[in-house]
Amino acid sequence: MRAERLIAILSLAALCAGCGRERPEGILRVGYFPNITHSQAIIGMARGDFAGELGSNAVIEPIIFNAGPSVIEALYAGEIDLAYIGPNPAANGYIRSGGEALRVVAGATSGGACLVVRSDAGISSPSDLDGRKLASPQLGNTQDVALRCWLMDNGLSTLEQGGTVEVVAVQNPEIFDLFMQGRIDGAWVPEPWASRLVVEGGGVVFLDERDLWEGGEFPTACVIASTDILSENPALVEAWLRAHVAVTEWELADPDSAMALVNSEIGRMTGKALPDEVMEMAWSRMTPTWEPLEDCIRISAQSAYRIGYLDEEPELSGLCDLTILQRVVGEAR
Known about the structure:
By secondary structure, the chain is an alpha/beta fold.
């Protein structure tokens, strides 16, 4: 039923793609999350990197989201032009629109997601999750797909599939509250929420998702652009990516300063900065990048198909358009 619900939501949104809002003149609407896996967006907005590159060509309108499927709905409705998002919602959005709605134009983050369980839950092997209650940030988001596929690979099924594992899809702050209250046994979440569950919630990392991928690299976030903005004003996308690459290079060169700035901005956006221990732990599990890791995106989409979120095997040959990124990176070098 949940897979059918996801398909219905995305299909309905796709029908609205052609009747979305007209993009306001001189405004670039950008979606991202108050998560460190979207660090370039947070840093670039705070330091003015994006505004500096765009100059007088556009005013940036930032729009804050919780999880990827909500971003896709907004893009379908014509409410955003660019966004930082997980690979699964990006692929789903591309597929449901028949390849018409969006393109992945850059990578953002590799790594930075874990399955964390309560230390008092008695969970030490996959079989111990039989009959347990787990959480993910939103139905169909990247961590939700990863969790459900991993359960399947380990001989477990969700209640919807006739199995015994209950998976609830709720926003990250609610996951944190449920975990603290002992109302869930674990959660597959992005950073900094995984580290918050460990440091503040007394949880333990049962699985770092990097361990599931060759070389430990997998995309947690990428940058998408609507096909409308790409066709109408590719110069805006190029300016954004120029700043995106510059911010990424700065993060890699000066991680301590990057962490401090991201944490300050998370405090401003959410009302509470992260404890230093949480920030350092979370940052150690992820790597800022502009590489989209295309092969991993395809594998993630295949996982969504395996668990029933897609009706047909995904065909993603046109999902990534890295023409602008390659030009920007070439100039930077």
